[in-house]
Amino acid sequence: MNIAVIGSGTMGNGIAHVFAQNSFQVSLIDISQDSLSRALATIGKNLDRMVTKGTLTEDQKAETLSRITTFTDMKAGVQNVDLVVEAATENVDLKLEIFRNLDAFTKPECILASNTSSISITKIASVTQRPDKVIGMHFMNPVPVMKLVEVIRGYSTSDAVTSQILDLSKQLGKIPAEANDYPGFVANRILMPMINEAIYSLFEGVAGVEEIDTIMKLGMAHPMGPLQLADFIGLDVCLSILRVLHDGFGNPKYAPCPLLVNMVQAGHKGVKSGQGFYSYTHGTKDLIVADGFKK
Fold this sequence. Notes:
295 residues, alpha/beta, 10 strands
């Protein structure tokens, strides 16, 4: 089975890594050659970490990298593949355009999957001539480490395609969990209101950044506090998902906190921008509360 991955960012390179490590031939596609080069470097570093830990040999690392071929031309990259996993930016117009092109460029039996964290699979499928073969494969970050794949059935996704993707996820060493196609699916329908409520708690002065995260880590056994997790996901991504939930359900409980909106508009997007609720520009792994939130 040949795989194509669209997008070579954090999620795309992780998805390509996992497929290649499990003996699949992978076409990694991005419009930017620089992004593709960075993706291969990231995959190499992640594989090196596995070699250091003794969970992978140098030969297995070399074999994994040899299975990944990069393309800047989508049409060339998806020729004769059996599955495409789209992992582009969480933007509905961009995803619809990608799926229109994939429908035109791939063979008719090719399954088209999206790694979207909130956008309707049914809506994505509607721009193709094969809605029965369109499905969600929502991997978790970091992809090589996290076990879950949230498998989302669109309104027209066939039983056969769903079964195939559930089995494929298991072949990758993942644990698939099936969800139906409603805004936010399961993971983000539950997670994002919690993150939003944590931001509201900060906004309303209930507690500080460090205190909110400490309470959730020590009191609820969360490995990462909700504000740190929001930084890790990307505050712009959190805002986008909350807007999908708010638009999809029309329920004010999903309305994004004004503090989140302002931070994203100011360019404070979390780890990716160097600043969110915490600062990430100091070159250490220590959690340092961003200046604007220090007491």
